[in-house]
Amino acid sequence: MFATWASPAFAAVVAGGALWALFLAPLLLYQVRAYGGLSIPRAAGSAAVSIYAVALVAYTLLPTPGASSWCAKNHDGEIEIHAFHSIAEIRRQIELHGVIGALTTFTVLQVVMNVVLFIPWGLLARRYFHMPFALAVLSGAFGSFMIETLQFAGGWTLIGCQYRVADVDDLIANTLGTLLGAVLAPTFLFWMPRARDLARLRLAPRPVTGLRRAAAMLLDLALLWLAALALAPVIVRGLKAEALDGSLWSGHELAPVLAAVVVVIPTLRGTGATAGERMLWLRPAWPVPVRARRLKAALRPALALGVYAALMAIAGAWADDGALGSALWLVSYAWIAVVLLWTALDLRGGLQDAATGATTVDARGSYEQTFA
């Protein structure tokens, strides 16, 4: 019996954790833009939401019958609309097995698990989504109602027939679990900050760390690859008039041009920051005004991603030469890896800042001044 409830829990942790990891990068970027910086507690809360969402599906809708023959034999659906009928069933179990023995029966455990299953709903609704108490409880009741409706409708025809019993007592138990979670939320999730409180500090300067600078470069690299992915068909068909060969860099002649458009040109306006730096509230600064600031601003990303794109272009040009082409691919990846590591570890800003005499600062102002 324990395995009946333990297996979906294990699956929820694995699948929910994988789902959270898949969206982790966009989530962290959203936090930086919405809150001005990262919030580890909010990130942990999003992981809990992801795992819990998968757990709800696993416990309430899975496993499915999986065979059309099952629906042919079990086409008559079941619905229990008599409220509190579980109380009489629990009393019957107590008469048969005693109080202690009844606690281990499926009848009692099913009611208990229906309550426990929705306690996290109340916790998360109150402290992660910060709903008012009444709204948090009502949201749990509505969520349970939708699940029971889905069970009664057999997955809204996705399954083909009803394969779970729709029970009003499940709705009552789930709502009770939500209520308990909402009551316990301030005690168990007192450490969860409010999103709106974090948003109020959005424009407050933060320390500029090596990891933050390297993350900005990774964002620029991701934009470069996304542009290559989007433009690869155009480049190949326009320049070669051949079928795609699967390489994002098939039009290797335009790789440096692509890097210039995606990474370098954005530095020619405003503060001189790249698109990735703008996303993370960063910008380059020079200790004294320099006459060639625009040139230096453009040179910063060109030294890193520009060189990388040029190496990729050369590697693409020599792709027919197996050994040389492979070696050049490795050199290009090694180059960007070294530059990223240098940027993350060097307190002075890495290659880009060292070569141009710049300092990467927070675009919102001086962090040191705010704490002076």
Automatic annotation (TrEMBL):
Entry keyword annotation includes Amino-acid biosynthesis: no
Domain of life, per lineage: Bacteria
Keywords: Membrane, Transmembrane, Transmembrane helix
Pfam families hit by this protein: VanZ
Transmembrane segments: 6-30, 42-62, 99-121, 133-159, 171-193, 214-236, 256-276, 297-318, 324-345
Listed InterPro entries: Teicoplanin_resist-assoc, VanZ-like
Name of the protein this chain belongs to: VanZ family protein
Residues in VanZ-like domain copies: 51-188
Species, as recorded: Demequina capsici
